[in-house]
Amino acid sequence: MTPRTRDIFISYSQQDKNTADTICAALESTGVRCWIAPRDVQPGRSFAGEITRAIQTSKIMVLVFSAHSNQSEQVLREVQLAVDARLHIIQFRIADVPASDDLRYFLSTPHWLDALTLPLKDHLERLTNSVHALLDVDAPASPPNAIGSPTASAQAGKPRHAPSIPLPAPAT
After folding, report:
1. Residue range 14-51, pLDDT digits in tens
2. CA angle at 126 for the pair 12 and 17, rounded to the nearest 5°
3. How many Cα atoms within 13 Å fall on the side-chain side of residue 8?
């Protein structure tokens, strides 16, 4: 099996690129390693091959779900690859639309994470916490050494719990 080199693969429709970039920045600000196209596609390599390898070497897919991604053949292929690779799939819904029959086939079981109301920033902390919880579950626990060292994931510089993302103060 291919070793996992990224924590997250972000799947999105090109029309939702700004939202996907915002999600990527929020996750990376907490130490999560993300793969997102086109940023991480290696020059001179096949786009399809790069996406396939990125999914196979990730632990979690964050699907930015919208009316656009719901109709995207590319997103459907990425979700199918993620299911085949047994990735956790976090469905980050930014639009209240029913999943197409094709996507519903792959996404009928996992729970949605709704981000239907603006601002998006209000939902990013919950996404980040969910990602960190899944990464903690997948991380093999290492026994403490003689002086009681933290687990392997903490030693690698990954936070055990996602730090809070500052949210704007409520309007009064």
Report:
1. 999 999 999 999 999 999 999 999 999 989 999 999 99
2. 20
3. 30
Going across the sheet that includes 60-65, the strands are 34-35, 8-11, 60-65, 88-93, 112-114
Side-chain-facing half-sphere of 136: CA atoms under 13 Å: 13
Which amino acid type is present at position 137?
A: V
User: In the structure encoding, which two tokens stand for residue 111, read together?
Assistant: 């729970």
The whole-angstrom separation of Cα 107 and Cα 120 is: 22
Other C-beta atoms lying within 10 Å of the C-beta of residue 10: 27
CA dist., res. 119 & res. 130, Å (int): 19
> Quick one: pLDDT at residue 162?
36
pTM of the entire predicted model:
0.67
